[in-house]
Write a structure and sequence with these properties.
This protein is of the alpha/beta class. The chain contains eight helices and 14 strands.
Length: 313
Amino acid sequence: MSNTITEAKIFSCMQSKVLAQKIADAYGTHLGNVITSTYSDGEFQPSYEESIRGTRVFIIGSTNPGPENLMEMLLMLDAAKRASARHITAVIPYFGWARQDRKDKPRVPIAAKLVAKMLETAGATRIITMDLHADQIQGFFEKPVDHLFASTIFLPYLKELNLKNLTIASPDMGGSKRAYAYSKALESDVVICYKQRAKANVISHMELIGDVTGKNVVLVDDMVDTAGTLTKAADLMMERGALSVRAICTHPILSGNAYEKLENSKLEELIVTDSIPIQKESSKIKVLGAANLFAEVMQNVHHNKSISSKFLM
């Protein structure tokens, strides 16, 4: 019996086409051919236009809302399973619905767990994702999960900035672990913002724990949605004597009037990845590519090599 590893095939969901093409280029191959038919009522059907029997397929697509992005990933997985692919890896740069990772009040769903079960039921035999909202979401899966850290993308950029009196900040208590990891890598101080919410996406009160006087501050978070927390934290820190405030956020959701908030804030720069395509350009937004990270991990997964270095902050 031959031990030759057949070439993997890479396919893309519609909204992640740009990133998927960059990943395929970095991987050294081309995107597989998928045609999506759409009915007049909005229902759609993806179709693989080449054989994938017995192969490893990587299906690239972030599952950020609206629901059609998750639905397309599920349909692509199901189609690959029914086409007898040997290994089906869902490459999900941004794992959507992840903020619902627990019951924080009675009679609410745990959406992150539900999504994990749906992905596995649809046919995923492995998950590759980046900067989950909560590390424990990996435990919602029965299949292997490769949870990559975007710090391998952000840290070189931060070091190139060569900021003096650098301080890393967490915009909330939940992100303190991430902030401490960055501060250890950069040998810097840490401050933490304490916030209280009136409701989802609405902050009623924010306080700063730590001193930012004369410091160049970098806020670190996994995502930026309405940009309310970041801009409020940046303005607060500048009022407390910071020299500058930047923010690193892996996933640029940027919903509602987020762009307007960014432009009107004292935030000097928002640094993100292309896990989600940004809706419009902004002089304050710097996009760093994640394609090389995913391509390298996909190569190593396919050839059964270690990827542990991409798990480190």
